[in-house]
Every structure is written in C-alpha cells, then in structure tokens.
Amino acid sequence: MSVMLRRSLLLSAPLLALAPRWSFAQSAARGGLTQADLRRIEDYFNSLTTLKARFLQIGQSGSSAQGTAWIWRPGRMRFEYDAADGLLLVASHSQFMQFDRELGQPSVVPTSATPLSFLLQPQLKLSGDVTVVGGERSGGFLRVTVQRTSSPSEGQLTLVLAESPMELRQWVVLDPQRRETRVSLSQIEVGGRFDPLLFEFNDPRFMENEARRRQ
Predict the structure, then answer these.
(1) Which of 28, 110, 163, 165 has the fewest CB atoms below 10 angstroms from its CB?
(2) What's the CATH code of the domain at 207?
(3) Hey, which residues does 204 pair with through a beta bridge?
(4) Which domain holds residue 61?
(5) CA 68 vs CA 25, 136, 153, 184, 212: distances in Å
(6) Backbone angles phi, psi at 182, to 5 degrees
(7) pTM score > 0.70 for this model?
(8) What is the mean pLDDT of the chain?
(9) Mind giving me the DSSP string for 127-178?
(10) Cβ(148)–Cβ(49) under 8 Å?
C-alpha cells in the first residue's frame, strides 16, 4: 500500500482543517437538492448511534485498500485496514490516533483535524460553516458536495447517501491538487453494540507484542 493511499483516508487533505462543527450553507437547492433533502440528511446523522461496515478505498492512481470501520457517536471511530502493514485509526477523547504498522509508529491529531469529524458530533447543524457547491439526486442516491466557506481552495468533500432508506454509502475527498480519494461502504450494520476497548488509545505495538507472547 503506497504512503499516499495509506494517509489519504482521513488525514491527508487540507480540508481536514474544517471546524469541528460541520454544516451546509443555505444554498440548499443548488444542484437539484432541496432544504427538505438537507433536513433528512441532518436527521439521519443525528439519529445515527453506531455503524459498522467494510470499506474500500481507491486513490487517484487506482490503487486500493480495504478494511473494517466502526463508528460510535458521539466521539468514537475506528478504521482498521486488512493489510498486515496497513493503518489503524482510532478516534476517542477528542483525539485521533493513527498507527502506521509499516513505519511502526503512532501519531495523534485532534479529532477536529479529520474530514469525517462531523460524524462524531452529538448534533449536526446544517447551516453556515460549510457551503454546498454541488448536489444531485439520481438512481436512488443523494450526492452532496461541500467546501469550507472561508477557504474554498482547501478542497471538497462529497457525501453519497442512499435515499430510501437513507444510509451513508460513500465519501470522496478532493484535495487542492484535484487528487481524489474515494471510500465506499458495504455490509453496513447500524444499532449494534461495540466493545469500548475498540476505541481506547492503547499503543498497538504493545498490544500486538502481548498477543504474540501469549500464543
């Protein structure tokens, strides 16, 4: 897995600098979406408590990686790549830990420094901080593209949701260099119960060494 692909799921684009409170501007009807559509999107995210899914990540060059994602709102998220040298990303306690198994080292950033931080907020208010720059309803899906209102050059994020029933299926990050990273979700399960230890900041190097020692 390339370094660019490994780092592009959540942590690569300047769009990551979006404020912790994500929102959509009042240009709701742009691109064929209505205010009612945006209210449905808001209601969907605000009613979401837990989500588990498989993800497939495809980078600009066509390289791909996959793994499993867990989201427990508010405040917790885990993305684990299948590859032995893949990333492990854990959000908890307002921080996001990234452990690169290939490099063998962790790094920590604020949760607000990730483009999906809005998923972890207790309430999603769709107004003000982010401008809707595109939207489409087609084939049973809603597509909404947003950018930071004060810094449109930082990049864009597109969310793709199934319309009925409403469900997050994909997001696309477009960075300032117009490089695109696409993440698709499948085998989606909502409303399940997770072990809180999935979201703890234990150093994976220690945990993996302990697991090998006990074998």
Answers:
(1) 165
(2) 2.50.20.10
(3) none
(4) 3-214
(5) 32, 28, 31, 11, 22
(6) -115, 130
(7) yes
(8) 77
(9) SSSEEEEEEEEETTEEEEEEEETT-GGG-EEEEEEEETTEEEEEEEEE-TT-
(10) no
Number of structural domains (the chain) is 1
Stronger pLDDT, 99 or 52, i.e. the higher one: 52
Cβ(41)–Cβ(142) below 8 Å: yes
Distances (CA, A) of 57 to 66, 142, 185: 6, 20, 9
Pair of tokens at residue 63: 């390289």
pLDDT for 4 beyond 50: no
Q: Which two tokens stand for residue 99?
A: 């452990």
Joined tokens for residue 59: 């980078």
Burial 151-163 (b: 16+ CB within 10 A, else e): eeebbbbbbbbee
Whether the Cβ atoms of residue 22 and residue 116 lie closer than 8 Å to each other: no
The span from the CA of 51 to the CA of 191, in Å, is 7
Rounded Cα distance, 177 and 146, in Å: 17
